[in-house]
Structure of DUF1440 domain-containing protein:
Amino acid sequence: MTASSSLPASRPLFPPLSISILVTAIIAGVAADLLWEVWARGITPLLVGGPLEPAALVQSVFGLSSRVLAEIIHGVVGVVFYPLGYLFVARPIARVVTPFLPWWIVGLGFGAGLWVFALYIMAHLIAGLPPFLGFIPLAWASLAGHLIFGLTTAAVVRWRKA
């Protein structure tokens, strides 16, 4: 046995783009989005008196009058683009910058990053709302929802061994 054969096999920084990776992203997105919706529309109203309304933010950001179109945009982003962002941006960055962190911490970090993107970049910088909605209870419910989304995405990716 040579010294090089005793080294553990390294994982690629980026997964190879394949049908399997795309299927993993969609499964992760559907699972994460379903849990987000249960949290946003089912549990959040019980805690803070009203649901999370990401479609309203999409309408505000893009100047849309159609609520249905805003819901579709938010759904596609959550089911397709955010999971691909986890696979091709967040996880590779974590592997380089913080390779010692377990998958579930990376997932929670991804969710927190999505929250910052939604409530600071989109809501504040683009739509002109207060940063993080002024940290009202709904903003904290949004953080919890994004953490659930990120953790679920990471769990599905791990389960699928992507």
User: Anything to note?
Assistant: The chain has one domain: 17-159.
